[in-house]
TrEMBL record:
Keywords: Membrane, Transmembrane, Transmembrane helix. The chain crosses the membrane at residues 6-25, 37-59, 71-92. It comes from the Bacteria. This is Uncharacterized protein. The keyword Membrane applies.
Length: 97
């Protein structure tokens, strides 16, 4: 389970780090903070769904209770890595100043 969690959380952190420099520039501006719900719901939530479907088969919560889509269960973790980077980047991109 620790390896699965690391494989899920590490791409999210990479996505956060990719967006961090632009966020720091936006922090220096004196504007009001907003949150772009449409972008978060349209992009971040589906990628979060893909990430959760990659972790659930290894947890006690998802054993024989949730049907996992076949495309996520294919041997290559490329889909999970891309979804993690997209989720991390989009999460910080949804914060606007």
């Amino acid at each position: 389970m620790p390896v699965v969690l690391f494989g899920t959380i590490f791409p999210i952190v990479i996505g956060l780090f990719l967006r961090l420099p632009k966020l720091l520039i936006e922090i220096k501006q004196n504007k009001q903070w907003t949150f772009d719900w449409i972008k978060f719901i349209a992009i971040a939530l589906p990628s979060c769904y893909i990430l959760s479907m990659s972790v659930l088969p290894f947890s006690s919560l998802g054993v024989n209770s949730i049907k996992i889509p076949e495309i996520i269960m294919i041997g290559s973790p490329t889909i999970q890595i891309i979804a993690g980077v997209v989720f991390g980047y989009t999460f910080l991109d949804s914060l606007k100043k």
